[in-house]
Amino acid sequence: MGVLDTRARRAAAALALVGLALGAGAAPLTAQVAQEAVDLEVVQRIREEGLEHSQIESLARHLTEVIGPRLTGSPAMKAANEWTAGRFRAWGLEGVQIEPWGEFGTGWELVSYAGMILTPYRQPLQGQPLAWSGSTQGRVRGPAVVVEATSPEDVARYRGKLAGAFVLVDPPAAVTPEFEHRPRRTPLEDLLEPPSDGGDRRPAMSPEERQRRIAQFRARRATAQAVAELARAEGAAAILRNSSRGDGVVS
Fold first, then answer.
1. Running along the chain, 251 residues long, what does each successive block of 10 average in pLDDT?
2. 3-class SS at 145?
3. Which residues contact 248 (CB under 8 A, 6 or more apart)?
4. 3-state secondary structure (DSSP) of residue 127
């Protein structure tokens, strides 16, 4: 979403031309430092607006609690753009419009999700569908198959075993009790500490270590691609992965 004021844009273009002309004419001369006049009254008004009339709380609440997640290409993103443009107009800005920026592709929206673990006893399956993942054709029930593979060759051992299955591709997450309240607040003494001189930075990675990590990444990517292709070919119900947050949620 963009805000366009044609008069301001023309003025900016004119100023740019003037700046180029002055720069070209002053090139042979010694550098000169111009002292810009500061309008303290305007500065004070800006401070008052930010400190005494801020609307950041109500704006953030509307974006997060009314509109919700704003994935690119989603209906919520469109609603957020239109709402933001409306707020700008209500504040008296002129020339407000939503600027198109090109082709994007297919939008996506989460309509609903529900999952249950049925054995050895019923319990909710805490999860979140990944963006742009496909829908199921109604309720789906199937076995859980754990795929333990570190290479595409390992994946071939599961051929013929994934039809209708929920495929788990990560080792079990180690979920430990957490006793700290969220959200955490940074202690005042930490905020008042002087900035670091950089002495506690991690040492630079050696070329050998860098190449080793790149090779590991490529191997994991190739293995994940092999699992996805086999699951798709055999008609698996879904692929389940551990959440990156490490709290036992799957995606």
1. 38 35 41 74 91 90 93 91 95 92 84 90 90 87 92 92 91 77 78 73 83 92 92 92 74 73
2. strand
3. 126, 173, 175, 242
4. strand
